Amino acid sequence: MSESNPEYRKTHFLERGVALQEWCLPNTMILPVMKLILTTSKTLTGRRSGKHQFIGGHNHNGNRSPLPPGKGPRKKGQVKRAFTLLLLASLILTLTGCPADTDLVPAFITINGFDLQTPDQGEPTSDIPEVWVFADAEFIGAFGLPARIPVPRAGSTQMRFEPGIRQNGVSAAPEPYDFYTPVNLTLDLAAGETIDVGTLPITYKPEVRFSIFETFELGDVRAFTDVINGTGTLAPTQELVRSGDFSGKIRVTADDPVFEVASAESFFDLTGTRRYVWLEMDFLSAAEGRIGVSGDTGLSSQSLFDPAFRPREQWTKIYFNITNIIVDLRLDPIQINLAAILPQGLEEGDLYLDNIKLIHF
Questions:
Q1: Which of 41, 42, 118, 207 would give a disulfide with 124, using CB separation of 3.0 to 4.6 Å?
Q2: Does residue 21 belong to any structural domain of this protein?
Q3: What is the spatial distance between Cα 72 and Cα 216, in angstroms, rounded to a whole number?
């Protein structure tokens, strides 16, 4: 998997945890050592090659998958030695390759954060708590902002800084946000010295598409008008506003505790270019919220809800990854659904929304 792949970067960050490691295996040695261990293990176990019928250890009925055809181990001692080698292989897999010049006293880069600029895309609301850092295309680490970043390099270095968000508002799900432009800088690094890059300007990438852009301002076409459940509405209000003159408001009560509304427009092939579809919004709420998708099978309507958000007393920016529920619904076209639910113990609750964007490539 390439280092440019977001899933690689996220997994690598979660496993690595820090930018520099005390113990590591040189990058050029990882593959040869792994090949040697696996080849020796296969020789010791003495199994003949063959194909697996199932992947993942179980079949679709929940039964264990059959083992590959061939003879079992020749001797108990050989199996124990093979097992030891496989444990060693597992240990190696837990170690990432050595950063270049590990023994070099690092240079340091300080960064305050990112400044999102959206000249023709509404208010630039954002929540970017992390930066994902690369030096000469090698992943250095992900750092909370503001950050002081150690970089084991000296001299002219190509640095790349990628904005990081929290998927679905969950702190345990850091994510480099591929809709934002990375910042590339050539810096002259020196051991022990610090370079301050300040606040870095970013934009949405040119290829990003906005299929919903709801600001609730007067004169704008309303994006969510198809009421599915409840007797309320999602209507413009000036009571509490994140940006501009208006936001959207949903009220749920003890007599009408659930409200669900779908987008007026149906969307075709949102994942056609890439399976990467997100819904951004600002919200403030005493009610719980849900994000979903719905479609028509021809005989009935089906919907899936997954991302949720809890009540917040202050305006909060949140990024929902709705790719999986779109794929799992297996219908085209689809609508985007919003729902508000009154928490237990309350007689009424209001949900305020602003700057809703359905974004994809």
A1: 118
A2: no
A3: 68
Could you say which of 39, 73, 93 is where a domain stops?
A: 93
The pTM score is: 0.73
* The two structure tokens encoding residue 102: 């590990």
- Domain co-membership, 168 together with 255: no
CB 226 within 8 A of CB 261: yes
Looking at the DSSP bridge assignments, the partners of residue 317 are: 282
Q: Which domain holds residue 79?
A: 27-93
**152 and 112 co-located in one domain:** yes
pLDDT of residue 247: 98
Same domain, 296 and 243: yes
CB 277 within 8 A of CB 323: yes
Query: What does the pLDDT read at residue 48?
Result: 39
| Residue pointed to by tokens 């659904």 | 337
Residue reference for tokens 């659930």: 258
Q: pLDDT below 50 — which residues of the chain?
A: 10-24, 27-28, 30, 42-75, 93-97, 101
DSSP for residue 190: -
Helix (H) or strand (E) holding 12: helix 6-16
E strands within 256-300? 258-263, 278-285, 288-296
Q: What is the DSSP string of 102-156?
A: TTSPPEEEEEEEEEE--TTSS-------EEEEEETTEEEEEEESSEEEEE---EE
> Cα 251 to chain center, whole Å?
30
Q: Are residues 75 and 108 in the same domain?
A: no
Express each pLDDT in 286-313 by its tens digit: 999 999 999 998 888 999 999 899 999 9
| pLDDT tens digit sequence for 159-186 | 999 999 999 998 878 999 999 999 999 9
Q: What is the pLDDT of residue 318?
A: 97
Upper half-sphere CA count for residue 154 (Cβ side, 13 Å): 9
Q: Which one-letter DSSP state was computed for residue 58?
A: B
Largest distance between two CA atoms of the chain = 80
Query: Considering the domain boundaries, does residue 154 fall inside one?
Result: yes
Q: Is residue 270 part of a domain?
A: yes
Q: What is the CA radius of gyration of the chain?
A: 26
